[in-house]
Specification:
The protein has about 350 residues and is mainly β. A four-stranded antiparallel β-sheet has the order 3-2-1-28, with no helix packed on it. A four-stranded antiparallel β-sheet has the order 4-5-6-7, with no helix packed on it. Strands 8-9-10-11 form a four-stranded antiparallel β-sheet, with no helix packed on it. The two termini are about 15 Å apart. About 50% of the residues are buried.
């Protein structure tokens, strides 16, 4: 019998009852989330990422009037976290962090400062001071949300030649070459004004990427040229029903590893939209699934991809679904698992 217990982590806001990063176990045999407990105490670890070798976790962190990234080692037996160090600078904490597969470079996106930071790592996974800090410029047509740059995502292209930064404030997707932690602008795609691009995920064939917009509640289908690092927008598709007129803001976007299905989170409509991806990368809606709570900020496919765990920030809950690999459809298994102010969910890799 294969492995039946998978270790997950939840990043949170710590404005209320939350104490920091939580860990939980997904029991695939019992089809339930178990053993939720505090893994590390720190302020506002709202986004996490885990290295390919499962030995380190990186979290955004707030400390007083400073913000930055904290590096942790992961105990292989227990999943316990031990902080190695943190790199901080003035102003608000970042909102996103990524690490390359070789664990040499960590990049963060700072919404409030409008910056992308790149850090080199030491042998143990601890962080060196920022090797590169790029400040974005510009604005968008939404006076409340796009008065200045707001970088919401920074991650690596599949071949890791480039870093991609998604800016909600100025409606751009920027590609940077990176060398020894130094970021150099390579290409910029301007998407529809006022859409507010937020997060991005690549198709496994590397020819397409999908960008979730926060302000217009859409997925932008992008053609990606791996050689040049350039993007071209080819489709905009709504992630909420046309007749839904209440406040809703797009959140996370993730793909199944076979590239057949794209999942997008809606805060307000409180749902995950399921899309099927065609051979041309374009999407068609399969269904909307309720997240059984308020303000789903993130969700994650487990290592078997037979389950999805969603995090409802406002209701402070995790929700578990079974995922049909053939249809993409989600079926509710468990709801109301308490994790206060849950924001980001990640699993140790299989």
């Amino acid at each position: 019998m294969g492995k039946t217990k998978w270790t997950g982590y939840a990043g949170t806001y710590t404005k209320g009852a939350s104490e920091g990063i939580y860990t939980f176990t997904l029991n695939t045999e019992k089809k339930q989330i178990e053993d939720v407990k505090v893994a590390a105490r720190l302020d506002n670890p709202t986004y996490l990422n885990i290295t390919a070798d499962n030995r380190n976790l990186y979290a955004v962190v707030k400390e007083g009037t400073q913000g930055g990234v904290a590096a942790f080692s992961i105990d292989a037996e227990t999943g316990a976290l031990t902080e190695l160090n943190r790199q901080l600078s003035g102003g608000a904490s970042p909102c996103h962090v990524s690490v390359d597969s070789a664990k040499k470079t960590v990049v963060s996106a700072n919404y409030h400062n409008g910056t992308v930071n790149a850090y080199l790592t030491n042998e143990d996974g601890s962080l060196q001071p920022a090797a590169s800090v790029i400040e974005h410029t510009g604005s968008g047509p939404n006076p409340e949300r796009q008065e200045k740059p707001h970088v919401h995502f920074a991650g690596f292209t599949p071949d890791e030649k480039y870093v991609v930064a998604v800016d909600l404030g100025n409606d751009t997707i920027t590609t940077y070459a990176h060398d020894g932690g130094k970021l150099t602008e390579k290409a910029v795609l301007s998407v529809r004004p006022g859409s507010g691009p937020r997060h991005l995920a690549f198709h496994p064939d590397r020819k397409f990427a999908y960008c979730m917009t926060e302000l217009s509640n859409e997925v932008i289908v992008l053609e990606f040229d791996e050689a040049s690092g350039t993007f071209k927008d080819v489709q905009y598709i709504k992630t909420i029903p046309e007749d839904f007129t209440e406040n809703s803001q797009g959140s996370a976007i993730h793909l199944s590893s076979d590239g057949r299905f794209v999942y997008a989170g809606n805060r307000g409509h409180d749902s995950i939209a399921v899309f099927a991806a065609g051979p041309d990368g374009k999407l068609s809606l399969v269904e909307y699934t309720s997240t059984e709570g308020s303000w789903p900020r993130d969700f994650v496919l487990d290592p078997t991809e037979k389950f999805i765990v969603a995090a409802n920030q406002e209701s402070g809950t995790l929700v578990l679904y079974a995922r049909d690999p053939e249809t993409g459809i989600l079926t509710l298994l468990q709801k109301d698992v308490p994790v206060p102010e849950a924001v980001c969910v990640k699993f140790l890799h299989g």
